[in-house]
Records
---
Amino acid sequence: MSRDDSPPTGVRVVDVRLHLLSRQVLDVDGEPVTTVDDLELVAADAPEDGRRDAVPGEPAEVGAILTGPVLLTRLLGGRPPASRWEPVPWSDVGHVGTAIELTVQADSLDVHWTEDWLREHVVGRIPGGRHDPEEES
Amino acid sequence: MKRLLGVALGILTAIGGFVDIGDLVTNAVVGSRFGLSLVWVVVVGVVGICLFASMSGRVAAVSGRATFEIIRERLGPRAAGANLAASFAINLLTLTAEVGGIALALHLASSVEPRLWIPVAAFAVWLVLWRVKFQVMENVAGLLGLLLVGFGVALFLLGPDWGELLRQAVPPSPPATEHVATYWYYAVALFGAAMTPYEVFFFSSGAVEEGWTAKDLAQNRVNVLVGFPLGGLLSVAIAACAAVVLLPAGIEVSSLSQIVLPVAEAGGTLLLALVIVGIVAATFGAALETALSSGYTLAQYLGWSWGKFRRPARAARFHVTMVVALLLAVAILMTSVDPVAVTEMSVVFSAVALPLTYVPILLVANDPEYMGEHVNGRATNALGMVYLVIVVAAAVAAIPLMIATGAGS
Amino acid sequence: MRTPARSGTIADVGRRARITRSGAVLGHVLVLAVALATTAGCTVSRQEPGQATAAVADALAQAGSAVETTRLTVRLLDADRVTTPVADAAVLDQVRVLEESTSALTTLVPPDDVSSAQRDAGLVAVADATREVVAARAWVAREAGGDLSEAGAVPLTASELQADLARAADDLDTALALAGGA
């Protein structure tokens, strides 16, 4: 699946619609990051220095998991500009199961500014907002 | 020994957590108007919720995926979005009913006006969600909810004519004064009260909260298969109390204060006080569960980080969602709408919304990709298909019956 | 380009499309249902003579239930089997029920003389019942220790109050029989 690897033996066929879209994405600690709202497709034979858009009829591969405003356009149609994408590079994906597991931590990704904003400005400021409920209080 | 204690605790909390304001009001209303002639619906509902809850618990334990994650995966963003809108709205209605129920019960305990209790109750719910450990929350609410056994005690103290009660129940013989459509309207309402969708959101997400794995399936099955039927017995006791005391006097239940009068008649002030504490606990527990469910559904659809087991700051949007849902519930109640009327609405709409969660769970419970060797067995699937028909029939019939009977009047 | 390629079989794509469509339809149906349900509760005045009589009977049955609840509450409080907050709440709830019955009757437009007479008899009976239930609430308040002993209209004993309530219940029954109810 990854651009950096040659296809492994015992290839597993993954249906993009059935197995990737709308799947839960978990970070390396099992914390939910997002749901796969859409995918970025890039040309399979991208040059070293950068990626190239996929061309119809030629081999393509998944470049990144997209989230954020893409959900709205998937519901209503249209497409947000690339600057509004909130991508998770496919190279960070470790395993595709009943959820997509990443090899990095959620905080290292720049995909959920609403969560960060609410954490810093609302929830984190209420007394007990950073208290671990599983500890004895 | 510790294991046995765990099993006992699980069963007890399942009993205490079974009854919420919907069961309480609907069973009392039905008992006061139809005697025990609708008890068969409680039986059907209890078997249904056992099937449904054990299935969603199994899916959550084996695949690690909670209900709404699965709904989105299976239906795609659009259909799941429509499903989310409907489920969230009905869950909000149930939350409103539960918070109103806490306020009404506290009114009975204190004679302070319900409108003053509503914000207090909502704040207390939030505080528990914010601060208290998931399992402590579950166990305390469930065990205190067990005080509703007082309805069963009251029934025995009343010393009813058991033969007459049985005659009402089998074969079901509704009073001649009630219209057939009204009978079926309340049948649907009772079914919706027993099988509220929030119980499934809560059950499957709770399994993830408590970190269940395939190893915990046996415990899960015992909790459900023993706890829920005993909880259903509580429902029947509530209906029977109303059937014994209120029905002969020509009293139609329209408020919480009427529901507890048979208990006072049978057991005096002490039993009455215990039952009122039980009602506060049961509605409070259900308010916690519905508030959590509002966070669960939205967070799971959008893939947010969720769960009470995380620090609130690590699930910020989840916690904000619950606060917003609670504030909306308070706002609705502050329009001085009657919480009992909200409850009656919420159970009927629960029946309408049931297929939206039931069908995806049934599909996934049969999908080896999620479930591996734990897919539904043949017997479970046969029962699952029977309930598919019942659930869809109830959902389709609910709204026409509501209109035809003027909401049961 | 980032179009998610149409992978999977055609049937798969079609199935998804169908599911999506039925979901959207379901959404519309739900919205419609909520709208209908909210308006369904507003049918107070009924036009057919039979329906008007049925509406009178409904309102009277409701009022009868309220009076019976009050009788039960008074009996329980007199026997010290119920706490005063519960008794007060129970009677207060019945005052509200009687308000509902009254407004159901007053907003009714009787289409003929028969149902008009039934409505008038019902209004008198419900007004009488309301007076007795309100008196019962004052009695409950006095039992609770409220200082209402000098208030003139409050019956002094539970048995007096019970007799008044029983009479109100009988009047309601008579009016209900007139409207063809059980």
Note: The CA atoms of residues 75 and 81 of chain C lie 9 Å apart.
---
Amino acid sequence: MAKAKLSMRERYRLLTRDLDWEPTYVDPKKVYPYTRYEGIKIHDWDAWDDPFRLTIDSYCKYQAEKDKKLYAVIDGFAQGQGHLSLTDARYVNSLKLFLQGVTPLEYQAHRHFGYLARHLDGPGARFAALCQSIDELRHTQTEIHTISQYNKYYGGLHNWSRMHDRVWYLSVPKSFFDDGLSAGPFEFLTAISFSFEYFLTNLLFVPFMSGASFNGDLATMTFGFSAQSDESRHMTLGLEVLKFMLEQDEDNVPIIQDWVDKWFWRGYRLLGLVAAMMDYMLPRKIMSWKEAFELYLEQQMLEGLFPDLEYYGIRPPRHVEQAITEKEYMSHQVYWILYQFSFAASFNTTVPTDEELDWMSGAYPETFDRFYRPLWERARRLEEEGNRFFFRGLPMLCQTCQIPMGFSEPGDPSTLSIRTSQFRGERFNFCSDGCKWIFDREPEKYVQAWLPVHQIYQGNCGGTTIPEVLNWYGIQDGVDNGEYLTSPDKANWDKWHTGAVVGGA
Amino acid sequence: MTVKALYDYNYPSKDRPELFGDDMLVHVMWANNMMFCSAACFRAPKAMSFADFKSQMVDPWAASDPDYDPSSAREWQVNGEPFGADSDVSLADTGVGHKGLFSFRT
């Protein structure tokens, strides 16, 4: 008689715990050299409790089923010219930002979770890192395949990997992730698994995927569904990993608090790009950045999560009160930056329509009509006079987040915020108290920042003129960049929707 | 606090002054004009006079705003301190320093 099949729980135990062994002829500290120097103390790796208990065979089966569904939808999308059903070609700009800014991070996450799958001492934690590593590679691939559909018809999507390494606004996500990759394994887990995948994930993922759904982008919406169960696994892992570290030793608490503080502000500044995307790049809005911030950060995290973490001695992140103040205007400050520097971006920007301006007045009653509507109305007049407003020069950058220093003093949108520190006799500039605080903790790290503006001035970016730098970026001048109303994307979209017979390309 | 590492962690700054030779990086902010989302960053010779810096670098940038009148720039500051905007003084002698900040109002 055949032996009864093992339960999934039992198979998981055998896979993770039973296949592990204690090294005897090599010092465990040499086998796992990276898990002590950060000061985090782990006494019992077996206390790690993976909430999902996946095995390799069940993992592969689930993922294969999801891939099959996704690729069927992508095929249908391609055959049915699905891109023509978008609300407007302007929407594709949010996909450009996603492919250039987020997809390369998925790949870096794949690599680093692979590293953790080797270097964490505990087998349960290693296996969880392995699954996440494979997830991240799958997300990289499925995002590329999904968004490639648009590369056939729209500008700005052809060179995202090179752009991620070179272009000024993409140094924001790149430097964020590099900061995590170059930290120790426990800081990386706090930065990416907890802060990014748990604390801030809904503010990143939901806006892009809901934005896709609201704007007729069936392909990206399906990708979002396909990644959703992985993301919820990553979220659970993020919280699990934090609690595991906190429960292992009281000495871990102040170290982790510091990381929670740092990675909240790092992640929040990165989300500035998402805020601008939500309020300005989606022709059909989901909700405002302010509403999303209130729902996903203030209600779910500050009121939901942090009261639980108080039990471990963890308080809400430092500088969060400034982020709350900024919800009234942050998206406008970031898109205003993107608007006037889009001559050097691989997407298009434009003045919002009248309907959108009115929507913003309603969504931001305290700030929009007072500070930002006059700017947009003036920008529109200049555009109509044939004098589209661009910042004719290069901006001052924050040494930490690398965003042009367009953020204001908290609560005062008309005054730019500039903070400085001196280190080894050299001056460094910051956009905010949060970014200065992060620098001052580890100045030796951030003095090495590759700031795009300073690199251009050092002659390291293909030349000193705009055409030379654009060429080095891989941005086709007049095709991928600049004003939307005069872009090839807009011209093609209008041609495809006139109802006239269009032959050939 | 310093970086925790398994080895001696000590690297030079990526924008240290010597990498710019006889030049320096200088920022300029038009303080009361929200059209400019941020201050601008310039690479300029340390020996350049402030007058030349203004006419050759600041004015063309500020003219991104068609209403800019070069004679209207006033209330200059250097790193937050009042500054006479003396024409002949070299950038190095203004005390602005590498990656420092001038600001003005109109």
Note: The two ends of chain A are 66 Å apart (CA to CA).
